[in-house]
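Support reply, case 0932

Customer input (verbatim):
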Amino acid sequence: MEESPDRPVALVTGVSRKIGIGAAISLALAKTGWDVATSYWQPYDASMPWGSDDTEAGKITDQIRGFSARTVSIEADLSDTASPKRIFDRIESSLGSVTALVMAHCHSVDSSIKSTTIESFDLHFTVNARATWLLIREFGRRYRNEYGRGRVISITSDHTTHNLPYGASKGAMDRIVLAAAQEFRELGVTANVINPGGTDTGWMSDDLKERVQSETPLGRIGLPADCACLVSFLCSEEGEWINGQLIYSNGGVR
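Our regenerated output:
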């Protein structure tokens, strides 16, 4: 499959809910001139309090196409080590080679130091850390686009109190992504991590929303579009000089 000469290809993971950060990133990139492949895993959403709508991924794809972007949506279990290769094979056959890898997927089930099970700990590291490494490795092995245009970006969190396996596995993910800033220097690929802080994607209680809003200097809660705007900038030519950074984009919360 030949790439579009005017639209590079981005892969965004974790794109299953219209209210999610992954969906906002996908639409922002499509709007700014990218073809966008997405991946998602519906059984994860089905296991969470917000539930799963099996039509959401298709609706997001339709929105992406509304920006004249080519797209493909791939359901993939990132706990399966074969998934990264399958995802990239599908994208290359449908859209062409990937220029930007943006990882917004996660596994997050609250538990504390004392209540976390071995199985939960391992699954968090499998999806949040190991899958990130395998996706970046696959991207690096296949990257053949213009020097200086390649991007690796991930979305992180530093919340570990009563959320131990999630926060700890995200910390491991950060180190993996930032290593790519050095190890992919011969490819001209930059790698950065974004911490968007508390973002309203439908999981916050009213009490939590009120507390986050009161702690934010700008007096509001973070929105998926806030993170998406930063991703769009990092993926632009103007964002090339930002590399190897963990960027807090959270409205000034400390």
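We compared this against your earlier run and they match. Two observations from our side: The mean pLDDT is 93. The beta strands are 9-13, 35-40, 71-75, 100-103, 150-155, 189-195, 246-248. Please reopen the case if you see a mismatch on your end.
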